[in-house]
Amino acid sequence: MNVLTFPSHEELNKVGAGIISGLIQTTPRAVLGLATGSTPIGVYEELVRSHKQGLVSFRRATSFNLDEYAGLPANHPESYHTYMEKHLFEHIDLPAAQRHIPDGCAADLEEECRRYDRLLEHAKQIDLQILGLGHNGHIGFNEPDQSLNSATHLVKLKESTRQANARFFRFIDEVPTHAITMGMGMILKAKTILLIVRGGEKAEIVHQALTGPICTEIPASLLQTHPNLVVLLDGEAGRCFQ
User: Fold this and answer.
1) b vs e for 104-125, b when ≥16 Cβ sit within 10 Å of the residue's Cβ?
2) 178 or 61: whose pLDDT is higher?
3) Which of 79, 169, 171, 182 could anchor a disulfide with 72, C-beta 3.0 to 4.6 Å?
4) Could you tell me if 241 and 13 are in contact, meaning their C-beta atoms sit under 8 angstroms apart?
5) How confident is the prediction for the chain on average, in pLDDT?
6) Catalytic residues, which ones?
7) Would you tell me the crossing angle of helices 41-52 and 9-26 to the nearest 10 degrees?
8) pLDDT tens for residues 177-211?
9) Cα dihedral across residues 36, 40, 45, 48: positive or negative
10) Which residues, 6 or more positions from 62, have their beta carbon under 8 angstroms from its beta carbon?
């Protein structure tokens, strides 16, 4: 585990983007695991900047997103399809056929989970998986529980997770109650995991996840078992490590 703390978001963003672009430059056909939410936006902005400067091309890469809300069509303003288009895809040269996001409006959501796992298995292994961290220690939408599902699955969101995401919607009732998420088993198969955490409100949970007991009640604690985990923290999130 390599934990790095940065005094500014700008420095964190540049280092995070540098890790990703460095991989693409050395391994053009890299498989990227992508995350959404507010945490990776600055990193994606740096990647877009590097691409526009001609420093990196995603033309031969492949991407898989961690999750998607159940019940939101791809063109919904708060779907993760829309998020990825807005913050990354429409600004880089990653072909549409090589971008993968679960279909939250599939007629059979359980079959959609199985389909997504088949795509992941065909890709063989994610080279670099980007992760954020939920306030309750969730990774993707793998919520705290007595047991965790290793495969892509449909999950009922904890009320705390819905409350945390309510800022993106007009009303709490608009926040979906379920989501499709990549399972912890597939996440942990990635060659490298890049965990990015920002904000003082997550200082305690990230410290607990990375130094405390490994348990399913804090899904992120399972990251301690990964052989190549890189953690990027801003100064507030990293205060417990200083």
Assistant:
1) bbbeebeebbeebbeebeeeee
2) 61
3) 79
4) no
5) 94
6) 67, 136, 138, 143
7) 50
8) 899 999 999 999 999 999 999 999 999 999 999 99
9) negative
10) 29, 30, 31, 32, 98, 99, 100, 123
Q: Which two tokens stand for residue 204?
A: 């305690």
Tokens found for residue 20: 């990703």
Length of the chain in residues, anyone? 242
- Tokens encoding 152: 């892509």
